[in-house]
Amino acid sequence: MIRLGLTGSIAMGKSTTAKLFAEAGVPVHDADATVHALYAGRAAPLIEAAFPGTVEGGTVNRLRLGEAVLGKPEAIARLEAIVHPLVREEELAFLARARAEGRRIVVLDIPLLFETGGERRVDAVAVVTASPEVQRARALARPGMTPERFEAIVARQMPDAEKRRRAHFLIDTGLGPESARRAVAALLRAVAGRA
């Protein structure tokens, strides 16, 4: 079974691209969705203990948590030490299910794939990219996003040029949805022979 890592910086179109893989029948493990579920479940009490006042009604308040960790490397490391092992457990369960179903390819959608060393857990990496202008416009169109917050997030991520350099496949979402769909189809054809 081929494990394809899917990654890309903020507002590059990674979530939309992951949906294209799912529409093509490829199982996708979404690390962000897993984090959201954990924030409403197992991780909430652990995060509240580490960052008091960040959980309301049993669910992590992401804005409060963001305020508690953004721009604080030691706080980010503490949060990651709580969340990353739980996400990894969920990923391993996903892979076991896919293997049992006889899947030939799966996608691990991991925003910080390179930043966390996740490329060592996959067979190939697809990087979703777009021009800096498209990225910035998309990011600033998000609710609650400010130029300062965008810059802080970008500063924490590996530069897009470096991600593209390390990629086995590139999917440029700045060229429109049909171009991205064709790129996904071409990628699946390319890896089909290796599965």
TrEMBL record:
Its EC number is 2.7.1.24. It is found in: Cytoplasm. Pathway: Cofactor biosynthesis; coenzyme A biosynthesis; CoA from (R)-pantothenate: step 5/5. It catalyses: 3'-dephospho-CoA + ATP = ADP + CoA + H(+). It comes from the Bacteria. GO terms for cellular component: cytoplasm. One of its GO terms (biological process) is coenzyme A biosynthetic process. Keywords: ATP-binding, Coenzyme A biosynthesis, Cytoplasm, Kinase, Nucleotide-binding, Transferase. Belongs to the CoaE family. This is Dephospho-CoA kinase. The gene is coaE.
